[in-house]
UniProtKB/TrEMBL annotation:
It comes from the Bacteria. This is Uncharacterized protein.
């Protein structure tokens, strides 16, 4: 992974300031970034090998620390104890980097986007997670799991809340709640277009994109193995 520290993470946040908010977005090709899309890009730019998921999904990475012990580069989660609806990157002096917008924001109708905000603007912080050790160095992940052989017709289980896309790859648009099948909507508890962890899905197609594996489900394409991480078993 190389040497990664808190300063690296913060410097990568600064690159995105002023970029617009697009729900489900993680690139300017899509028109902008939502909060989890911003986090995904910052972590990738910094050298962390993480997959693309939602605010709630990112509660599975790093380790939880007390709210009062947060430091720059830590991840701040907002919402309810049961479900995070927003995520940001902590900085010093009560500040954070975040992407602000709503689910109605599209490429043609973008939201405010990436800002340097006061943490106190929200009163629903529920969790802080850190990716660093006591010396401020990044904690490297364990060796990636071996890739499973996915087969059409078999049923698999999502290990995290996952976005559903129109095609195999992050360059394809993330679907909205209304675009999921009726059964898919039943497993999208917060109606954000991302299917809940624990959902069982039927594989109707498999595609390898580089080192990643995507499976097609009735609702659309979902990353099964991404950046060395297994999200569907």
């Amino acid at each position: 992974m190389g040497k990664i520290n808190r300063d690296v993470l913060i410097e990568n946040c600064k690159k995105y300031l002023g970029r617009p908010y697009v729900w489900g977005g993680e690139s300017m090709e899509e028109g902008g970034y939502d909060c989890s899309g911003l986090l995904y890009r910052v972590l990738q730019d910094s050298g962390f090998q993480v997959g693309r998921t939602t605010s709630q999904g990112y509660r599975a990475i790093g380790r939880k620390i007390p709210l009062a012990e947060r430091k720059k580069g830590d991840l701040l989660f907002f919402g309810t104890p049961e479900r995070a609806v927003h995520v940001s990157i902590c900085d010093e002096n009560g500040k954070m980097y975040e992407s602000i917008g709503r689910s109605i924001n599209t490429k043609e109708n973008p939201g405010l986007g990436v800002t340097y905000s006061n943490i106190s603007r929200r009163n629903d912080m529920i969790e802080v997670r850190t990716l660093f050790d006591q010396n401020g160095e990044a904690v490297t992940d364990k060796e990636p799991e071996k890739v499973s052989n996915y087969q059409v017709g078999k049923v698999y289980t999502l290990q995290a809340e996952m976005k559903v896309r129109t095609g195999a790859g992050t360059n394809y648009r993330a679907k909205s709640y209304s675009e999921l099948t009726a059964n898919g909507q039943k497993h999208d508890s917060d109606r954000d277009g991302a299917v809940d962890a624990g959902t069982r899905v039927t594989c109707t197609g498999v595609k390898t994109v580089g080192k990643d594996i995507w499976i097609q489900t009735p609702s659309g394409w979902i990353a099964a193995v991404y950046q060395g991480k297994t999200y569907i078993k």
